[in-house]
Amino acid sequence: MIQISEDHTYQHLLADADAVPNLPGKLARFLDGRTDGRSADLTPVQLHPGDRILLCSDGLSSYVPQESVRNALDTGITPEEVAEHLVTLALDHGGRDNVTVIVIDVHQ
Q1: Which SUPFAM superfamilies would you find in this protein's record (predicted)?
Q2: What is the spatial distance between Cα 81 and Cα 19, in angstroms, rounded to a whole number?
Q3: What integer is the mean pLDDT of 51-66?
């Protein structure tokens, strides 16, 4: 599993964020359709048949340990079933945010 982007929350962007009391868990950068310079992170990735891609919000990545996400992605079940399982894991781990999960299998 290779992470190609990161959450743009205050906690992820500040060095020693744990030392800042009451730091909000809000997004520091996001896309909202305005023309004032906000842009998405773009990372070219070479895809091959058999690759599995996970697109998710911080509602998943902030609550479910990476090892659990990796285990879910490595199963032989369909992308739809993996996505449903990951949403359930996020909610079971106390997720208070909305959880967005898309799983894509690459075919030839």
Answers
A1: PP2C-like
A2: 39
A3: 91
